[in-house]
Amino acid sequence: MIKKFLCSTLIALFVCSASFAQTKPKETKVEDPDNLASQYFSQVMGVAVDATSNLKLYKFIYEWIGTPYRYAGNTKKGIDCSAFAKAIYDKVFNTNILRNSRDIFSMVNPLSKDELKEGDLVFFKIKSKSISHIGVYLGDNRFAHASSTRGVVISNLNEPYYSRYFYKGGRIIEPGDKNFVEE
Questions:
Q1: Where do the NlpC/P60 domain residues begin and end (predicted)?
Q2: Distance of CA 86 to CAs 19, 74, 100, 103, Å?
């Protein structure tokens, strides 16, 4: 219900922006719809979305917020953390990554928290000696993920729970990168 309201509000903002742009004199600067979307996502998602942010990433995440967690799931009826990360990389970054968080970690250059950039991956060892959880970093210590208790949400790496279990960040190794190994 709230999601539909927020989506309707975003659509209304775009419609108002478009009609406002049509009625203003030509010499007046028109509000950029991408800027409106950035402001909207900043407010709704609690993430500082700016002009350099990937709006496609935020739109994709917004469409999934609230989707329940389901182990091995990969649809809006239920999804797990690695399937969610895989879907983001497929649809937003046009990059195919593996399906499980431990395997995905083999595809990255490890990073510390302070090296993370928007779109990087974050890995956790939750009550385990091996990687057991993954999310996608958004900036400002926030990341999107499929939580086993809350479904698809945005969380903060500084929350005590995530801070305790954070393992490493990672950036996908691209072909041509010195660390890229073709299989």
A1: 51-173
A2: 38, 9, 9, 11
Instruction: Find the catalytic residue in 67, 107, 119, 133.
Output: 133
- What is the rounded CA–CA span in Å between residue 145 and residue 132? 12
The string of DSSP letters for 33-86 reads HHHHHHHHHHHHH-S---TTS-HHHHHHHHHHTTPPB-TT-EETTEE-HHHHHH
Out of 83, 111, 132, 145, the active site residue is 145
Q: Is the pTM of this model over 0.90?
A: no
20: Cβ–Cβ under 8 A, 6 or more apart, which residues? Answer: 30, 31
**Distance, CA of 59 to CA of 76 (rounded, Å):** 15
Annotated catalytic residue within 45, 57, 79, 81 = 81
138 is catalytic: no
Specify whether 7 is catalytic.
no
25-82 per-position pLDDT tens digit: 444 344 666 677 678 777 877 777 776 678 899 999 999 999 999 999 999 999 999 9
